[in-house]
Specification:
With about 190 residues, the protein is mainly beta. The longest helix is centred in the middle third of the chain and has 9 residues. Strands 1, 8, 9, 10, 11, 12 and 13 form a seven-stranded mixed sheet that branches. A six-stranded mixed sheet has the order 5-4-3-2-7-6. A hairpin with a 2-residue loop joins strand 6 and strand 7. The protein starts with a strand and ends with a helix. The protein is built from two helices and 13 strands. It has two domains: about 90 residues, SH3 type barrels, CATH 2.30.30.240; about 60 residues, SH3 type barrels.
Length: about 190
C-alpha cells in the first residue's frame, strides 16, 4: 500500500534506455470503482501537442525506483483509447473533495488516499476534519467499503461503520482465556 501523493511526480523508467523517460503528473481515476486507470505524464522527449498518458496496464513493474515500462512507445494520448478519454475529461480527483455522511453531516475533506499497488485501486481515503473538530481528531480514515455514493459535490459515506464481530468457537480441551469476560454464575447455570 502506498499514499497517492507519493506517486505524484514519480519517475517512469524505460527498460530500453535504462533511464528516466518521464514523470507522473496525476492519476486518471474511475469514480465508479476508484480504480486508477492511467497517469498523466510529462517528459522532455514526449510529444507535447496533446496530453500524454501511461495506462496502468502498460506498466511492466512498479518498484521503489518508480514505474518501469518497456519504452517511450508505451505513452498514449487520451484520444487513443475512447473509454480513457471519457475518464480523462471528467478530471476526477478525490483529493480536496468534501466527505459527508448519509445524514449530510460534513466529516471533512480528502487530503490523500491509500492505493493497493497490485491492482492500483484506492483502498482508503484520509480525511481532514473541519477546523473546530480538528482539535479532537487529526485525520480520519475511510475504507472504500464505507462509501455509499460519489457525486460532483461530495463523497457520501455510512454514518457509523461497524467492524465485523469476530466469531468465537470453543475448542474442546482449550485453555481458559484470561482476557475473555468471565460468565456470571446465573449465565453458567442457565446453559446447563
Amino acid at each position: 500500500m502506498l499514499l497517492g501523493s507519493s506517486l505524484t511526480n514519480a519517475p517512469i523508467m524505460g527498460i530500453q534506455t535504462g533511464s528516466e523517460i518521464a514523470r507522473t503528473i496525476g492519476p486518471i481515476v474511475d469514480p465508479a470503482t476508484l480504480g486508477i486507470l492511467a497517469y498523466e505524464v510529462s517528459g522532455h522527449n514526449l510529444d507535447m501537442s496533446a496530453p500524454n498518458l501511461l495506462r496502468i496496464a502498460d506498466v511492466r513493474e512498479f518498484s521503489d525506483i518508480g514505474f518501469i515500462v518497456d519504452s517511450i512507445d508505451e505513452f498514449i494520448h487520451p484520444d487513443d483509447v475512447i473509454k480513457l478519454r471519457d475518464f480523462y475529461d471528467q478530471h476526477f480527483d478525490p483529493t480536496g473533495m468534501n466527505v459527508i455522511d448519509e445524514t449530510r453531516h460534513k466529516l471533512g475533506k480528502v487530503v490523500d488516499f491509500t492505493i493497493e499497488t497490485s491492482g492500483f485501486i484506492i483502498q482508503q481515503l484520509s480525511i481532514r476534519p473541519p477546523l473546530l473538530r480538528s482539535f479532537n481528531t487529526t485525520e480520519l480514515l475511510i475504507h472504500r467499503s464505507q462509501i455509499i455514493e460519489i457525486n460532483n459535490n461530495a463523497i457520501v459515506v455510512h454514518s457509523q461503520a461497524k467492524a465485523p464481530e469476530p466469531k468465537l468457537n470453543e475448542v474442546v480441551g482449550s485453555y481458559v482465556n484470561p482476557f475473555r469476560k468471565p460468565k456470571s454464575a446465573s449465565e453458567s447455570s442457565q446453559e446447563k
